Amino acid sequence: MVALALCTPAQAGPQSDKGRGGGGRAHLDATLQSHQSFDGTTTVIVTVRDGADEDVKKRVEGHGSKNKIVNRHRSINAMSVRVDQDGLATLANDPDVESVSIDADVTASATIDDGSSVVSDLKKKLALGNWFTGSTVTIAVIDSGIAPTADSTGRIVGTFDFTGGKNGGAVAASDEYGHGTHVAGLAGASGAVSAGAFGGIVPGVKLLALKVLDKKGAGKTSDVIAAVDFAVANRAKFNIRVINLSLGHPIYESALTDPLVRSVEAAVRAGIVVVAAAGNYGTNPVTGQPGYAGIASPGNAPSAITVGAASNAGSIERTDDRVPSFSSRGPSWFDGYAKPDVVAPGSNLMSDLAAGSTLATTYPSLVYPSAYGKLLKLSGSSMATGVVSGLVAAMIEAHDYAAQLRYDTSLTGRLKKLAYVPPPALTPNAIKAMLQYSATPLRDANGMKYDALTQGAGEVDGLGAIALAYMADTTQLPGTAWIGAIPPTTQFGSDVENWSQQIIWGTRVVTGPSLIDVNQLAWSTSVVWGAGELDNIVWGTMSQESDNIVWGTSAVLGDVVWAGSVMEGDNIVWGTSLASWGPNIVWGTSLLGALEGDNIVWGTSLSTESDNIVWGTMTESDNIVWGTLEYDNIVWGTANKMTGQGLVGGVQ
Fold this sequence. Notes:
Alpha-Beta Plaits; Rossmann fold; 2 domains; 28 strands; disordered N terminus; disordered C terminus
């Protein structure tokens, strides 16, 4: 791992159904509740009630010279505040304060892997040709910067520095760490450095560098929020259609109060597609076994497209594609959200190198000569996120191009001279649905399908996603057809793969022949992904819940087995506890991570099923146990004994 801190929100206590607005400790996130004693000062992000920010500011600054406002985050009605211990106590009891969150360290989601397998052609891997270059789209890469290379000549439209509270000052293009340059290259490298061998997904896309990570690959949550706010405020100026967030921090609180998640949701409401890394914490660091609940913030944002990593043996075919153990699995900590949404190539990827950067100089074995320069090989959900950001840019351009064609062919003579008014853009929800619907589910080495918490809907299918975006006519009213018939298969080399033909919406898998070819109300920008019951969304004709229960409340399944096709291993059950399980509830109506006030750890069971992942405490015998028993399905029960020092949430 490269400069990735494994952090533990110790002693996470139960949260009430009313949230954290009760005052005192209830205002604070899990980390602040556990560590209210500290020397000197610390920075927190304070969310205040509407119209009360000036009053809170006066009270903070009037409490002593050590307490001051560092930054304002108006999009989420919050501010970054430097406080001492007394100042934190004052904020915790301020009636105008809704929540107080740690200004967590964020880190890049890259891993160091010296394996020899290299994906040499991303476009072929996604079944893409050279149809769309992304030249009409700008991706805001919120990372460590983007160093100018031959692969990005003339396409870095600006660099703005947010590190250390600089709040977005314009600077020369650079990247001291090297991570942002690599991610940006996967999305949009022209291929000039490698004579086309390692070009990005959209070689003509514009790149906006919003620098939030320093030369060590570390930064602050408040700086990331400031960068997201900047992207939203300047989306028209730079034509920002996509935000790439290949970084994250531990989940310390519910997504409902997490400032970074709220910032992401605000950006999506503004019409920007936000692509976020799932994290690289899919492996139990004690046992080396795959584990769950390693999603990091802001990958837990419901409306973000959260991306895990996929690997392959160097072939175009997908029969040998796997989900590497490092890729974070869901559900999200505290809320139990279904994540990741999809997976994408993210293992041993070659991309642009920032000369003299920390990654290049610290890991010279990962630097490779190319036709006209040098490249860097990295693995991680960061890399997969860059790939998907590039694919989203191609989808946007494909849709816009097709809309122009429809206009050109529908009007003649005098009418054609009228000014062209573009139709409504594809919404972030629609793009996410297309990525999931066209994704191809992956299987492990034994031929068993990975569950939805491991791969989401599957590995992204570039050709399928672009075909759906190209065909979508956004002038059609919700509830009516907007996409013509498209065969739900894609050929990868010699293999033909079926699309998933489903989306994961909140607590349901939604399927049906009209799911994607009808312009659904659920695609509206105002709708939070997964919110509400299916009936409240009013899905188009024939869309329906899958027969396979994926997650929700288990009402009568006495020993918690699967409904539907158990042998396929694609069903996951959880929910409220049955009577025999007593008061411990992991998923469903209770918050993941709030278990009788005890710190939840990650270890292994000493029972006969010793491969299982165990969640619980080190001292009690009624811990919740869950993992991958038979058929790669997730089951749960109770443990009799535990061992090993665990880590909460498998965070980055």
